[in-house]
Design brief:
The chain has 161 residues and is mainly alpha-helical. It has 6 helices and no strands.
C-alpha cells in the first residue's frame, strides 16, 4: 500500500511539473489510479473499482474539453501553465499546512477494534448512497451534464461567428 501512496504523491507532483496538458492529464490519471489501488489493497473493492471507473470517465471528458478549447492540447510548443506563481505557491503551502493540521490535531475518535467484513461494508455503503445521499449524487450528475452541454453550445456558437 505504501508503493501506491508514493506513486499517487509522485504523479500528483508530476501533474504540476510538466508543460503538456496531455502529460498532466496522464499523470493525474496515474495518481488517481494509484489511489484506487490503495482502496483495493485495503480490501475496499467497491471504492477501488468506483475510483478507477470514475477516473476513466473523467479522463474521457477532460480529453474532449482539452481538444475543444486548447490551442495546443499536446503541449508540443513551449507552454507555461503556471500563473501567479508566488500566490499559488503560498496558497498551496497554506493549504498543505491546514490539511496537515487537521490530520494531526483532529479528534478522530477511537479506533474500531472489530471491523465489519468487506461484504457488510459494501452493503452499508450502498445503503448510504442509495438512501440519504442519492439526491446529492443525482443533482451533481445533472449539474455536470448541464455544464458540459452549455460549454459545448458556447464553443459551437463562438466558432460560427
Amino acid at each position: 500500500m505504501g508503493a501506491f501512496g508514493l506513486a499517487a504523491a509522485w504523479f500528483g507532483v508530476v501533474v504540476f511539473r510538466t508543460s503538456s496538458m496531455v502529460r498532466s492529464a496522464l499523470a493525474l490519471l496515474f495518481s488517481m489510479a494509484a489511489i484506487g489501488g490503495m482502496f483495493l489493497a485495503m480490501e475496499a473493492e467497491f471504492l477501488g473499482v468506483l475510483q478507477l471507473m470514475m477516473m476513466a470517465t473523467e479522463m474521457a471528458i477532460m480529453a474532449i474539453f482539452m481538444v475543444m478549447y486548447m490551442m495546443d492540447p499536446g503541449g508540443l510548443s513551449g507552454m507555461d501553465m503556471t500563473h501567479q506563481k508566488r500566490a499559488s505557491l503560498a496558497a498551496g503551502a497554506l493549504g498543505a499546512l491546514g490539511a496537515l493540521a487537521v490530520a494531526v490535531l483532529a479528534d478522530w475518535g477511537p479506533i474500531e477494534a472489530r471491523v465489519p467484513a468487506a461484504t457488510a461494508q459494501v452493503r452499508e455503503l450502498g445503503i448510504e448512497i442509495m438512501e440519504r445521499s442519492m439526491l446529492i449524487f443525482e443533482t451533481a450528475g445533472v449539474t455536470i451534464l448541464t455544464a458540459m452541454i452549455a460549454a459545448t453550445a458556447i464553443a459551437i456558437q463562438s466558432r460560427r461567428r
